[in-house]
């Protein structure tokens, strides 16, 4: 079974802070005329920026990314019908 290819992405990130500030941004590969992979990387960068802005430990962001990659790798290794 081959892995599907990413066609396009749209990601919306928004936050509201205790000082009543709010912000939202939409990352859309079609509107930006860029690859979905670059669009996702830009969204990840924005999430990391927000985490840093609010003094969340860098380890939380690193753990989230590495954990996601690990879970997908494990899924692919264990799925039925995999090719050797």
Structural class: alpha+beta
Major sheet, described briefly?
A: 2 strands, antiparallel
Question: What is the overall shape?
Answer: flat
Q: Calculate the terminal CA-CA distance, rounded to whole Å.
A: 10 Å
β-sheet strand percentage = 15-25%
Count of the separate structural domains: 1
Mean of residue pLDDT values: 92
Ranges where pLDDT stays below 50 over 5 or more residues in a row are none
* Spatial strand order of the main sheet: 1-2
Helix content: 40-55%
- Note the total helix count: 3
Task: Provide the succession of SSEs.
Answer: EEHHH
Can you characterise this structure?
The protein is of the alpha+beta class. It has one domain (10-78). Helix content is 51%, strand content 17%. It has 3 helices and 2 strands; from the N terminus they run E-E-H-H-H. The protein has a two-stranded antiparallel ribbon. Strand 1 and strand 2 form a beta hairpin. The longest helix has 21 residues, at 58-78. The chain is flat and about 50 Å long. It starts with 9 loop residues before the first strand and ends in a 6-residue tail after the last helix. The mean pLDDT is 92.
Quick synopsis:
By secondary structure, this protein is α+β, with helices and mostly antiparallel strands. The chain is built from three helices and two strands; from the N terminus they run E-E-H-H-H. The chain has one domain.
């Amino acid at each position: 079974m081959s892995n599907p290819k990413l066609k396009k992405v749209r990601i919306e990130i928004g936050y509201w802070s205790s000082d009543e500030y709010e912000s939202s941004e939409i990352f859309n590969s079609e509107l930006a005329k860029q690859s979905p992979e670059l669009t996702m990387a830009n969204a990840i960068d924005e999430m990391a920026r927000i985490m840093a802005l609010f003094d969340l430990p860098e380890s939380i962001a690193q753990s989230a990314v590495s954990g996601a990659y690990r879970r997908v790798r494990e899924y692919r290794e264990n799925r039925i019908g995999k090719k050797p």
